[in-house]
Amino acid sequence: MTQAPIIEVTDLTVAYGSYSAVRGVSFAVGRGELYALLGTNGAGKTTTLETVEGHRPPSGGQVRVFGKNPQDRKDVRPRTGIMLQESGFAPDLTVRETVGLIGKLTHRDDDIDRVLDAADLTGKRDTKVAQLSGGEKRRLDFATAIFGSPDLVFLDEPTTGLDIQARDALWDAVDRLREDGATIVLTTHYLEEAQRRADRIGLMHEGLIQLEGTVAELTAALPSTIRFTRPDTAETLPLDTRAEETGAVLIETRHLQRDLMVLLRWAEEHSVELPDLAAGSTSLDDVFRTLNR
Ligand code: ATP
User: Fold this and answer.
1) Using CA atoms, how far apart are residues 248 and 251, in angstroms rounded to an integer?
2) Which residues are 225's β-sheet partners?
3) Residue with CA closest to ligand 1 atom 11
4) Domain range list for the chain
5) Which of 38, 53, 86, 130 could form a disulfide with 91 if both were Cys (CB 3.0 to 4.6 A apart)?
């Protein structure tokens, strides 16, 4: 990172009474990065983010956002868009009125219709908040977070409850923010979204970031996998295998290309079909599972 980081967290601790929810977390997010803070339930992600957002004071350590203390709201808040897990919008306001109101509160300028379009809510502009579906409310949360194209956007479980079209539309809008240079901090339990989108990932467990890096760095420590449904043959498979809980056959390998070739040659020679064959590097899911061991 050549420029000063947008977010810098050093030895952060946060306690609720005698319970330490965050136990010494350090990470930095550079300008234009998409950083995903992932982790097990109760790991301390929300607590960490609330502190970085300036909603909660640290018990110890230091948090800097744009080089400032995020609790100095006048410096940090106008440059920050936050999509919380649940926002409390007034039920009697329309979608358009809500976006306009939030826009005023952020002190940023934007065209309300542009924001509605970016969040795919144009057709619902005159609908009252109380009448929105769960997915539409989520899109309204997103609309208010991106109003005025803030430099830093926090997305807390942004796609929960969204159908596939709405997810794609949301990620398109995030891509556009990133093209404009925005920095994004994401939390999600949809690991494949983080795997596809994040520049770097911090994996939290029990109040600490246990692993951090790019997807390639995080998955490099684990072997690649070959999976298929057990074939209908008496021939012995040419490689060591394990049976997964699902009944699939699993081969773990550090030499994916070579071992896949061995398997395919064997299948060809014995005229064996390998149903549901899939091969590739380890997924983030597998890295995640190692946290709980
Ligand atoms: P999840 O993925 O389940 O949303 P998380 O990583 O966001 O979890 P946090 O919400 O930060 O986790 O919670 C961390 C720990 O702190 C949990 O054990 C939780 O029970 C506890 N905790 C959170 N908020 C409070 C609170 N207000 N008072 C006491 N304990 C709390």
Assistant:
1) 10
2) 252, 280
3) 44
4) 7-218, 223-282
5) 130
Q: Output the pTM of the full model.
A: 0.86
Q: Which atom of ligand 1 is nearest to the CA of 40?
A: 2
Q: What strands lie across the sheet with 248-253, from one edge to the other?
A: 242-243, 248-253, 224-229, 278-280
Q: Read off the pLDDT of residues 2-11 as tens digits, 9 standing for 90 and up.
A: 578 999 999 9
Look at ligand 1, atom 30, and give the residue with the nearest C-alpha: 16
Closest atom, ligand 1, to C-alpha of 50: 11
Q: Which CATH superfamily is domain 7-218 in?
A: P-loop containing nucleotide triphosphate hydrolases (3.40.50.300)
The number of residues in the chain equals 293
Q: Which residues line ligand 1 (CB under 6 A)?
A: 16, 19, 21, 39, 41-47
Buried-exposed string 212-234: b where 16+ CB fall within 10 A, e elsewhere: beebeebbeebebbbbbeeeeee
Q: What is the pLDDT of residue 161?
A: 85
